[in-house]
């Protein structure tokens, strides 16, 4: 049932946000020559998939977790994209293709070994990764792999349609609060 909502919502969002997506693509193209960022991520059943986002970092930045990077690697346009969360919009294509869900554990990098171990112990890879979830609305990032995996597990255990829409709604509220 959630897959049906993922498909419908991501399709509608892509359709209605297409002018914004095209505008951001061309602004990114003009500002750094490479508007899209593609990166391997660990997904459902630990299968690797290609995640797509708008580029926020300088070209040739190391492929490591964001909290491990020097903030000076963020481009001025990238800063705007990050603070507004617009950099995440291309992931709607990942949802549409079935690599991700709108709601689920954020997909990690293949080199985040500690997080992979913690998630594997808790069967987190038995669900599709998502754009948002309990960890995101709680302000938990990948700096603390144990806390993140435990939070992911709590979300997965309680997941149903009510929580699916609850996390989507809370994400919108979370983003709006960060802007103000």
Outline type: globular
End-to-end C-alpha gap: 35 Å
Q: How many individual helices? A: 7
Question: How many domains would you count in the coordinates?
Answer: 1
Radius of gyration: 16 Å
Based on secondary structure, the structural category is: mainly alpha
Main β-sheet, in a few words? 2 strands, antiparallel
DSSP strand count = 4
Strand share of the residues? Answer: 5-15%
H/E element string?
HEEHHEHEHHH
Mean pLDDT: 92
As a percent range, the share of helical residues equals 40-55%
Low-confidence stretches: none
Spatial ordering of strands, largest sheet = 1-2
Q: Mind explaining what this structure looks like?
A:
The chain has one domain (2-168). The chain is 52% helix and 11% strand. The chain contains seven helices and four strands. The protein has helices at residues 2-32, 76-84, 91-97, 113-121, 134-137, 145-158, 161-179, and strands at residues 36-42, 48-54, 101-103, 130-132. Helix 1 packs antiparallel against helix 3. The protein is globular. The mean pLDDT is 92.
Topology of helices and strands:
Layout: H1 2-32, E1 36-42, E2 48-54, H2 76-84, H3 91-97, E3 101-103, H4 113-121, E4 130-132, H5 134-137, H6 145-158, H7 161-179
Parallel strand pairs: 3-4
Antiparallel strand pairs: 1-2
Helix pairs in contact: 1-3, 4-6
Short description, anyone?
The mean pLDDT is 92.
């Amino acid at each position: 049932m959630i897959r049906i909502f993922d498909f419908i919502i991501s399709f509608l969002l892509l359709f209605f946000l297409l002018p914004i997506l095209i505008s951001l693509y061309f602004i990114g193209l003009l500002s750094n020559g490479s508007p899209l960022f593609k990166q391997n991520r660990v997904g459902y059943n630990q299968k690797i998939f290609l995640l797509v986002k708008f580029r926020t970092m300088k070209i040739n930045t190391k492929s490591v977790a964001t909290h491990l990077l020097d903030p000076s690697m963020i481009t001025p346009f990238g800063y705007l994209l990050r603070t507004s969360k617009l950099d995440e919009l291309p992931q709607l294509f990942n949802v549409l293709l079935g690599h991700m869900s709108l709601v689920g554990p954020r997909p990690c990098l293949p080199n985040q070994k500690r997080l992979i171990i913690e998630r594997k112990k808790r069967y987190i890879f038995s669900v599709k990764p998502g754009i948002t979830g309990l960890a995101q609305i709680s302000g938990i990032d990948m700096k603390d792999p144990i806390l993140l995996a435990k939070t992911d597990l709590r979300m997965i255990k309680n997941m149903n349609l009510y929580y699916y829409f609850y996390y989507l709604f809370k994400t919108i509220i979370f983003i709006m609060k960060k802007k103000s």
